[in-house]
Amino acid sequence: MALPAWLQPRYRKNTYLFIYYLIQFCGHSWIFTNMTVRFFSFGEDSMVDTFYAIGLVMRVCQSVSLLELLHICVGIEPNHLLPRFLQLTERIIILFVVITSQEEVQEKYVVCVLFIFWNLLDMVRYTYSMLSVIGISYAVLTWLSQTLWMPIYPLCVLAEAFAIYQSLPYFESSGTYSTELPFDLAIYFPYVLKMYLMMLFIGMYFTYSHLYSERRDVLQGFPVKKKKV
């Protein structure tokens, strides 16, 4: 006897993914709406305390997004592990290591810019993924989800690099994460961040190439209108 639809593994998987995407969409939508309202209410002053106003929700959303690596590993989400890993680690390092650990960096305009870029990408991506799980597809949304990242993702990486650059003096003066090791060795964290800057752009090239190939595969089925001669 066939199992009821709600007991079938595929149904449960899609239900779980839909709820996950919905939660992420709501979180990022709240952040973006909050930032927009605050900007129109307080102007540039709202950019200075962006992290204090919405930093907690952003940290929760980014922490929960690590589940996507598990989704890929167990096969319930059809993505490649390495590109997604690079994208997530970029944000986790910038958000938790660079911004959260240095109060002076939290007041920089670059934090507001980063949050705007991250939320624009994620609102579109999670909307597209959420509807795809339940079999709904819109050509405009599909095109947007596969195209919006092309200008914004490089800008994200530039903003992340600028955040690291602005944080270096504070890491140098405070000694945060710098530690001494046995045998007269030491880890000087500003040097680690400078090395990560180079890795950041190498990872951007790899991720951009992967996303571009994915975009080509997804959009190749789009109807192309031929001009009449």
TrEMBL record:
Catalysed transformations (reactions): a very-long-chain (3R)-3-hydroxyacyl-CoA = a very-long-chain (2E)-enoyl-CoA + H2O; (3R)-hydroxyhexadecanoyl-CoA = (2E)-hexadecenoyl-CoA + H2O
GO cellular component labels: endoplasmic reticulum membrane
Membrane-spanning intervals of the chain: 15-32, 140-165, 185-206
E.C. number: 4.2.1.134
Keywords: Endoplasmic reticulum, Fatty acid biosynthesis, Fatty acid metabolism, Lipid biosynthesis, Lipid metabolism, Lyase, Membrane, Transmembrane, Transmembrane helix
Domain of life where this protein originates: Eukaryota
One Pfam family in the UniProt entry: PTPLA
A GO molecular function held by the record: very-long-chain (3R)-3-hydroxyacyl-CoA dehydratase activity
Pathway info: Lipid metabolism; fatty acid biosynthesis
UniProt entry tagged with the keyword Ion transport: no
InterPro entries per the UniProt record, alphabetical: Tyr_Pase-like_PTPLA (IPR007482)
Enzyme's top EC category: lyase
UniProt keyword Membrane present: yes
Topology in the lipid bilayer: Multi-pass membrane protein
Similarity comment: family membership: Belongs to the very long-chain fatty acids dehydratase HACD family.
Function: Catalyzes the third of the four reactions of the long-chain fatty acids elongation cycle. This endoplasmic reticulum-bound enzymatic process, allows the addition of two carbons to the chain of long- and very long-chain fatty acids/VLCFAs per cycle. This enzyme catalyzes the dehydration of the 3-hydroxyacyl-CoA intermediate into trans-2,3-enoyl-CoA, within each cycle of fatty acid elongation. Thereby, it participates to the production of VLCFAs of different chain lengths that are involved in multiple biological processes as precursors of membrane lipids and lipid mediators.
PANTHER family: VERY-LONG-CHAIN (3R)-3-HYDROXYACYL-COA DEHYDRATASE (PTHR11035), VERY-LONG-CHAIN (3R)-3-HYDROXYACYL-COA DEHYDRATASE 4 (PTHR11035:SF16)
The name this protein goes by in its record: Very-long-chain (3R)-3-hydroxyacyl-CoA dehydratase
Naturally occurring in which organism (per UniProt): Panthera pardus
Gene label: HACD4
